[in-house]
């Protein structure tokens, strides 16, 4: 297993494992990313999901809980438990919407903002680990193209839930070490 030559037409990759395909490559990349990022955000309630919530509320106007659930594609029945845990840790707070007191907005606390700054540095370091040995230009090209593809696919089907795809790939017993 290892390097394979490209096909005569030049369309096949020059590096890979015979018999593998895009799904396998993406699964390996996702698993490596997930393992490293979960370690980087250790101690944050609900791990990567909690970090993603902190990131959204830390970089945007306070969203509603339902808007946040929709944006991150987290089941709306699960979201209150995640917010409760983040609120219990002093990282976020629910605030009444000034225009509709029945609506609660999720805002980052000063403690949450400080934690987010720390976590972002740790996540960047974890992502650097995923790309260890990959030239910077190739990494940039990969991430830029992955972003374009993800946005294109999401725009095509905004209801597509990336969390389900991640959990399915991580739950596959054949992928466990």
Helix-strand layout with pairing:
Elements (H helix, E strand, L loop, with lengths): L21 H19 L6 H13 L5 H8 L6 H10 L3 E6 L2 E9 L1 H21 L5 H21 L5 H10 L6
Antiparallel strand pairs: 1-2
Number of helices: 7
**Gross CATH architecture of one domain:** Orthogonal Bundle
Rg, nearest Å: 19 Å
Structural class: mainly alpha
Biggest sheet statistics: 2 strands, antiparallel
- The CATH class assignment of one domain is Mainly Alpha
Record field, number of beta strands? 2
* Helix share, percent: 55-70%
N-end to C-end Cα span: 19 Å
- Backbone shape: globular
- The strand order across the widest sheet is 1-2
Question: What percent of residues are in strands?
Answer: 5-15%
Question: The CATH topology of one domain is what?
Answer: Arc Repressor Mutant, subunit A
User: What's the helix-strand series?
Assistant: HHHHEEHHH
The CATH homologous superfamily of one domain is called Winged helix-like DNA-binding domain superfamily/Winged helix DNA-binding domain
Q: Are there runs of 5+ residues with pLDDT below 50, and where?
A: 1-8, 163-177
Average pLDDT? 83
């Amino acid at each position: 297993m290892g390097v394979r030559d490209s096909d005569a037409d030049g369309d096949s990759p020059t590096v890979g494992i015979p018999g593998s395909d895009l799904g396998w490559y993406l699964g390996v990349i996702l698993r490596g990313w997930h393992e490293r990022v979960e370690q980087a955000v250790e101690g944050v309630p609900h791990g990567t999901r909690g970090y993603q919530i902190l990131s959204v509320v830390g970089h945007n106007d306070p969203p509603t809980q339902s808007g946040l659930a929709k944006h991150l594609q987290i089941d709306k029945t699960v979201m209150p438990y995640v917010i409760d845990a983040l609120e219990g840790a002093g990282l976020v707070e629910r605030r009444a919407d000034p225009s509709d007191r029945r609506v609660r907005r999720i805002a980052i606390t000063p403690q949450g903002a400080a934690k987010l700054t720390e976590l972002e540095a740790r996540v960047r370091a974890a992502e650097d680990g995923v790309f260890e040995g990959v030239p910077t230009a190739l990494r940039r090209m990969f991430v830029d193209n992955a972003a374009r593809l993800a946005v294109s696919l999401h725009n095509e089907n905004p209801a597509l839930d990336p969390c389900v795809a991640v959990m399915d790939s991580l739950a596959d017993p054949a992928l466990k070490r």
